[in-house]
């Protein structure tokens, strides 16, 4: 079955860095657009960054210059490099896989990122 498993979250002080990973199985990974979302307590889920099957990337304005999305198709994994972290980045970060031809979407369970001041 389709499975997306996030890892790499944890506790970090402001200004620090984390690298999140999302390993996918059960899909033809190289054909899917991959996304990172986050949701903080009391806030709505928001898109952090996305990367298409051919490597085109996009990121939310508040994270541009600090967060970088990438993918390794040989490992069926998408990454989110987070630098210069701020307390307001504290959230559960989840990945999703989108097949733009069929509109199929799969979600992972998320990984907690906590940034202390």
Which structural category fits the helices and strands? mainly beta
Instruction: Output the radius of gyration.
Output: 14 Å
Number of strands: 11
Give the biggest beta sheet. Answer: 7 strands, mixed
The helical percent reads under 10%
Global geometry: globular
Give the rounded overall mean pLDDT. Answer: 96
Low-pLDDT residue spans? none
Order of helices and strands: EEEEEEEEEEE
Span from first to last CA?
40 Å
Beta-strand residue percentage: over 45%
What does this structure look like?
This protein is mainly beta. Helices cover 0% and strands 53% of the residues. It has no helices and 11 strands. It has strands at 3-7, 10-13, 18-25, 33-39, 46-51, 57-59, 67-72, 77-82, 91-98, 105-107, 111-116. The strands form 2 sheets. Strands 2, 4, 5, 6, 9, 10 and 11 form a 7-stranded mixed beta sheet that branches. A 4-stranded antiparallel beta sheet has the order 1-3-8-7, with no helix packed on it. The mean pLDDT is 96.
